[in-house]
Specification:
The structure holds two protein chains of two kinds. Chain A contains 31 helices and six strands. Chain A is mainly α. Chain A has five domains: 164 residues, no CATH class; 109 residues, no CATH class; 158 residues, no CATH class; 50 residues; 105 residues, no CATH class. The longest helix of chain A has 22 residues. Chain B is an alpha/beta fold. In chain B, the strands form five sheets. Chain B has an eight-stranded mixed β-sheet, sandwiched between helices. In chain B, α1 runs parallel beside α10, α9 runs antiparallel to α10 and α12 runs parallel beside α13. Chain B has two domains: 92 residues, no CATH class; 347 residues, Alkaline Phosphatase, subunit A. Classes of the chains: A mainly alpha, B alpha/beta.
């Protein structure tokens, strides 16, 4: 590129207005479906895809469903209202006649001050947007309901030319779109590449050399499916998929704010989630237990533990807070999170006023809020109510101690104060109190007794002290009703969410699974299925998956199994040479003409390094652990816990999901790899690529230790010559046969470092042993230091940090 | 490989080698300071396009900015305005007399219970500088720089607990999840030094601010714009140091091997993200040099350390002020200092206003005056916006929690004082006033969103239009619904 061209390009790219950052999707996310292609001027305008976004973005703020902000009585979100003449006699829209429609007149008005939308509202309409609106009015100005509020339907599978490629229905939907665009799917990935991919996706861990061997040696048909089933049966599957859910559940081991007190037993909820995934609890049951596990007829300690889902809200223990203010904040969080997690909608703005874009009114919000407003918790520092995990033995012991204390106290009554006898007895009582076994307990949802139920008001502008009309609990009026005859409580809402009439729950669930496996959802805006979100790239496929998911009893493993055994999933992720995914037609690979390739998430980066080095502990569940972190990071305010006591033994090397998660100071290496703080529900993680990540995987003592252990493994298991060991390391870490161009630089690195460390044994010893521990018998410090350098690089390879 | 990728790869290789040659020539002691500074300034002159491997490339805002960088001095806990900048003789007259009933009507307090007494300041005030601003005697160094500053005595907020008030001030929303001011500004402007983080956080007082890491969080913005905490004890940035036993040459050799393997990966799979990763590892290598270098205040002459009252090796506000200057000098966009210890309730001698407050003032007074003078002397103040203030104010009443006999004040959202200097601020302005008892605002109230809009304006942004789409909403620093007004009275 010439300098002049480069400079001009730079100027264009800079823009005067800050454009979205480089990693933000451009607006033209998905190539338009074939129906809208190349049919010239008169082609049919699609309201949902082409018109609604324009109206929603530019008009609804003042001419939408919110009465409070509606200007001039004009409403454009309902056809009926938009075509009715206003007071001055003009109608905004005259179907069939753009020239008579005042909407067109106002958006093309020459006088800047009169032109709509007003300057203050932000953007002006582009010529093409105006042209679209004109054409749409000319064609009759038909409105359609937003796709996501229409229940999903299973359409007949499309016809495809390449009939041998699809394995399942889902492949046919993918292929049909590719063929319509003149694209072809990529060839199938190499077997070991595929095995690594599916192992990471299902378990968050790479396959072991034995697993690779077993798979590549299984020549009978169905070898891949059998490997998938083994992974699905591995308890590591539950750990991997629980991780995703825990972001949504804003699960953390502390209460948030100020001193951010610890929640030392809340891990029991985390273990419930892991077990639910491993047992393949159907998603409808999974939903009901977490929202209302205390209200179901067969409630037990396990289902009550599940309700900690909504006790993961923060508790504000800062001195001098108004508990009611923060109880209200927690109830709002529960309301918002429920709708976000299960229905992919943002209700947040309806706290203050009617949603400007989606059919949720201010009143709807507080009706829904009212359902969550009846639990006994109220932002108390002790987090009550709690579910106790006592055992009969503990109960017995406590009972005995209490009896002893009671009798001692009785004895004390007769003895004057400040006498030695009384003091001695007092000390005995204190000692006994201390000897009581600590009962583990977790905050859970408990419904208030009927007579203590709260009255819920609409809150003006969301301010908990500014109450308006009283509302009765219920669900948004524009959606399907609660199950008839049921009390409007959390149980009814849980059932309402997983009711087949709910247009969103299944779609959102399958989309989430899709996003985990393909790096982006069919609806790319996982967090927003509303009118402001992106439309699905494959609407029929989304619905097909959603309906199938419900038909099969909300079977999570079944859904995942089908996707990962599909032809779509098995494609190669290579951009070259045989990926015909034309950059011009589909630059972002939304049509999946190849498998996307992207960086592993925070926990996987850690878990993989520990697994490859052989350090990883496979213990499932239990209290959260404290792997090494730099000193002095916990500097909590107001006497908050400051001591991070590093775990010992195997607990230093547990999977990332077990790392103690403190909201105000998240574990640094995870945060650097985009793990959220979990103060609030995080629907999706952004994937960044920064130098701070390089610091973690190069220099964090956790990763240095992994490199040291991997170095010893190379020496022990990798054969005799440096070439053999490098090849072993590459094959181990990348799960594919090494190539010479990879081997040579690492062998050279080994040689240069060996020479250097021979000159400096103290440095060699430090690099090979700190923090892992002494050099094993028969090994040489310089040799191990050189291999540690190589192992450190192996763990930093792009191909290792990436899922291909 | 596609031709564009190939070009970028060639460019990256050339850059890497040049960079390495340069470091080798400069010796392993560090790239010469002038080199770093030169690079930063050269970068400033040529805004470049942002690509995935250069998310921090500088770019212009909506309109020509007055300020190019920000130093925000955050006094965590809420300093008492009546004892520092808001002189209230009438309140002094009523010292320790019962509070009039009307002040208590419909009021919520964090700690005050029952019927409190008024609390006049025990400290002397005088008019200072040419602007004649009333300033307390316990800020003697500040008197010498008061004419650089513009004082706002009519700030108010709607939060009266620390964490929510800090979140509101620094992210625009009192609930977690928003993007911080520093992240917004770094996102909008990029940074003028590609070898340092664009947004740096420095903490003193031994305790994190109550809002925690959320105060410098990137929220819904891409996480590269997150504030990076630099420390004066331990690794200046977490994990910036090579493992024990590995020196910089060894690291270079190992990164060369890594690059070669990653280039092979790139030609095999053609993934542009691989190219980004290659350049991020090279950037990390440069940062390993640049970060310890900028954080090493021993490079400063004795006179400069004295100006700030800085002592190498300490974790002090004074050191952080000096570091702030070193960082902005090198092109870092936003530097935020958090100093703990301003929550002066009067529950003990250490946190009362007679003894604790003057001690706290000693921690910050000289360093701040030093910072303003130093920036001014270097010609940096003109384009560096300096802001000082806490998250809310303190009551005009004595708190007397649990009968405490130490004098102290409770949280007070209705009025507080902040000041600004440099970067397009008209020096000597005194904006707004409180009533005679320093309890409510009497004129020109300034909201938190006004302050944010004004800061953004000075940096060249229209706060109304500076947005980011998330969850179907136009997210803004001033809130989705908020309206912030640029306070023109403050502008030069």
């Amino acid at each position: 590129m010439s300098r002049i061209v480069a400079f001009t390009l730079a100027l264009i790219l800079c823009g005067v207005v800050p454009a979205p950052a480089a990693d933000i999707p451009a607006t033209a996310a998905v190539p338009a479906p074939p129906s809208a292609h190349g049919q010239g001027q008169g082609k049919k305008v699609d309201f949902n895809r082409e018109i609604r976004p324009i109206l929603a973005k530019n008009c609804y703020a003042c001419h939408g469903s919110d009465e409070g902000t509606r200007a001039k009585g004009l409403r454009l979100d309902l056809r009926e209202a938009a075509i009715t003449p206003l007071k001055d006699g003009d109608a905004a829209i005259v179907p069939g006649s753009p020239d008579d429609s005042s909407l067109i007149a106002r958006i093309t008005e020459e006088d800047e001050t009169l032109r709509m939308p007003p300057r203050k509202a932000g953007n002006r309409l582009s010529k093409s947007e105006v042209a679209l609106l004109e054409r749409w009015i000319e064609q009759g100005a038909k409105y359609e309901q937003h796709w996501a509020f229409v229940p999903p339907k299973k359409l007949p599978l499309p016809v495809v030319r390449n009939g041998s490629w699809p394995r399942f229905g889902l492949d046919r939907w993918i292929l049909a779109r590719l063929e319509a665009e003149g694209l072809k799917p990529s060839s199938e990935a190499e077997p070991h590449v595929l095995l690594r991919r599916v192992s990471l996706d299902l378990r968050g861990l790479p396959p072991t050399p034995d697993e690779i061997k077993r798979f590549t040696e299984d020549k009978a048909p169905g070898a891949y499916e059998r490997a998938v089933d083994r992974f699905l049966d591995d308890p590591a599957y539950g750990e991997r998929w629980a991780r995703i859910w825990l972001d949504l559940a804003r699960y953390a081991d502390s209460a948030g704010y100020g001193s951010d007190p610890l929640r030392p037993n809340i891990w029991r909820y985390r273990d419930w989630v892991i077990a639910a995934f491993n047992q393949n609890m159907p998603y409808d049951r999974f939903t009901i237990e977490q929202i209302a596990g205390d209200l179901i007829p067969d409630a037990n300690n396990s289902t009550r533990t599940a309700t900690a889902f909504h006790r993961n809200t923060m508790t504000n223990t800062e001195g001098g807070t108004d508990d009611e203010e923060w109880r209200d904040a927690a109830v709002k969080d529960r309301t918002d999170t429920t709708v976000q997690v299960w229905m992919g909608l943002t209700m947040g703005c309806a706290k203050c006023h009617t949603h400007k874009y989606d059919p949720i009114t201010h009143e709807d919000y507080y009706r829904f809020y009212a359902i969550f407003n009846q639990t006994a918790d109220r932002d108390l520092p002790d987090e009550s109510p709690l579910l106790s995990f006592s055992t009969p033995e503990i109960d017995e012991k406590v009972k005995k101690i209490n009896a002893e204390i009671a009798s001692l106290k009785k004895m004390m009554e007769g003895i004057p104060r400040d006498t030695p006898e009384r003091k001695a007895l007092g000390k005995k009582v204190a000692d006994l109190e201390k000897s009581k076994p600590v009962v583990s307990n977790i905050p859970v949802m408990v419904e208030l007794p009927r007579e203590q139920r709260r009255v819920t008001h609409i809150l003006k502008k969301g301010n908990f002290r500014d109450t308006a009309d009283v509302v009765q609990p219920g669900t948004p009026k524009s959606l399907h009703p609660l199950p008839p005859g049921s009390e409007a409580n959390r149980l009814a809402v849980a059932k309402w969410l997983v009711d087949r009439k709910n247009p969103l729950t299944a779609r959102v669930a399958v989309n989430r699974v899709w996003a985990q496996l393909f790096g982006a959802g069919l609806v790319e805006t996982e967090e927003d299925f509303g009118t402001q979100g992106e439309p699905p790239s494959h609407p029929e496929l989304l619905d097909w998956l959603a309906v199938t998911f419900m038909d099969r009893g909300w079977d999570m493993k079944g859904l995942i199994r089908e996707v990962v055994t599909s032809s779509t999933y098995r494609q190669s992720s290579s951009y070259t040479p045989d990926s015909p995914g034309d950059r011009e037609i589909d630059p972002r690979n939304r049509l999946l003409s190849r498998m996307p390739r992207y960086r592993l998430e925070a926990e996987m980066v850690r878990d993989q390094a520990l697994a490859l080095s052989g350090l990883l502990s496979n213990k499932v569940g239990g209290p959260s652990v404290f792997p090494p972190q730099p000193e002095g990071l916990w500097q909590a305010a107001f006497n908050g816990q400051r001591t991070w006591t590093t775990s010992e033994g195997a607990d230093k090397h547990r999977r990332g999901i077990y790392t103690f998660w403190r909201r105000t100071v998240p574990y640094p290496s995870m945060a650097v790899f985009d793990a959220p703080s979990r103060e609030i529900c995080a629907i999706k993680r952004i994937r960044t690529n920064t130098p701070l990540q390089a610091f973690v995987t190069l220099n964090d003592p956790v990763y240095v230790e992994a490199a040291q252990a991997l170095a010893r493994r190379l020496v022990r298991e990798g054969g005799k010559t440096p070439e053999d060991r490098v090849k072993f390391g590459l094959a181990l870490c990348l799960c594919r046969p090494p190539r010479n161009e990879q081997v040579t630089p690492l062998v050279n690195l080994y040689q240069s470092e060996l020479a250097r460390y021979r000159q400096d044994v103290p440095a060699a010893t430090a690099l090979a042993t700190d923090p892992l521990g002494p050099i094993p018998d028969g090994m040489d410090p310089a040799d191990l230091a050189a291999w540690t350098t190589v192992a450190n690089i192996l763990l930093n390879l792009d191909g290792v940090l990436t899922k291909g | 490989m596609n031709p564009d990728l190939d070009l970028r790869l060639q460019h990256a290789r050339a850059l890497t080698r040049r960079q390495f040659l340069k470091t080798s020539q400069a010796g392993l002691g560090g790239i010469a300071l002038s080199g770093l500074l030169g690079k930063a300034r050269a970068g400033a002159a040529s805004p470049s396009a942002r690509t995935p491997d250069s998310p921090m490339a500088p770019r212009p805002p909506h309109f020509a900015p007055k300020a190019k960088r920000v130093i925000y001095l955050s006094m965590s806990g809420g300093p008492p305005q009546q004892d520092l900048f808001d002189y209230k003789p009438e309140l002094i007259k009523h010292n320790l007399q019962p509070c009039p009933d009307f002040l208590l009507k419909n009021q919520r307090f964090a700690f005050i219970k029952g019927h409190p007494k008024m609390l006049g300041t025990p400290h002397k005030f005088a008019k200072r500088g040419e602007s004649g601003a009333w300033v307390s005697d316990i800020l003697p160094h500040f008197h010498t720089v008061v004419d650089h500053t513009s004082i706002i005595r009519s700030m108010h907020t709607d939060q009266f607990n620390h964490a929510p008030a800090e979140l509101f001030l620094y992210t625009g929303s009192s609930r977690n999840g928003g993007a911080s001011m520093g992240s917004w500004i770094t996102y909008g402007l990029g940074s003028e030094n590609q070898d340092l983080p664009g947004f740096v956080v420095l903490i003193s007082g031994g305790t994190d601010p109550t809002g925690g890491k959320a105060l410098w969080s990137t929220g819904f913005l891409p996480s590269v714009y997150q504030g990076v905490q630099c420390r004066t004890v331990g690794d200046p940035i977490l994990y910036v140091s090579n493992p024990k036993g590995m020196d910089r040459d060894a690291r270079r050799r190992s990164l060369d091997a890594l690059r070669r393997l990653n280039e092979a990966e790139l030609s095999e799979f053609g993934d542009p993200e691989t190219l980004t990763r290659i350049s991020q590892y090279e950037l990390a290598f440069r940062m390993q040099m640049a970060v310890p270098d900028v954080m090493d205040i021993r490079q400063e002459p004795e006179s400069m350390l004295d100006l700030y009252g800085a002592k190498p090796g300490a974790a002090s506000f004074a050191n952080n002020c000096l570091l702030a200057r070193r960082l902005v000098e090198r092109g870092v966009r936003f530097v935020q200092l958090f100093d703990w210890g301003w929550d002066l309730h009067g529950t003990s001698k250490g946190n009362d206003i007679v003894y604790g407050l003057p001690d706290k003032c000693k921690d910050i007074d000289q360093p701040i005056a030093g910072l303003l003078k130093d920036l001014h002397q270097r010609g940096l103040l003109e384009e560096t916006l300096v802001i000082w203030g806490g998250e809310f104010g303190r009551t005009s009443m004595n708190e007397a929690r649990d009968g405490s006999t130490w004098l102290g004040r409770d949280h007070h959202p209705h009025c507080f004082t902040i000041w600004m200097a440099g970067g397009g601020i008209k020096p000597g302005v005194q904006l707004g006033a409180t009533d005679e008892l320093g309890y409510q605002i009497a004129e020109s109230p300034v909201t938190v969103h006004d302050l944010q809009a004004t800061i953004l304006h000075l940096l060249g942004f229209d706060a109304e239009r500076f947005d980011f789409p998330y969850q179907g909403l136009r997210q803004r620093l001033i809130g989705v619904e908020g309206d912030g007004h640029v306070r023109k009275e403050l502008l030069a």
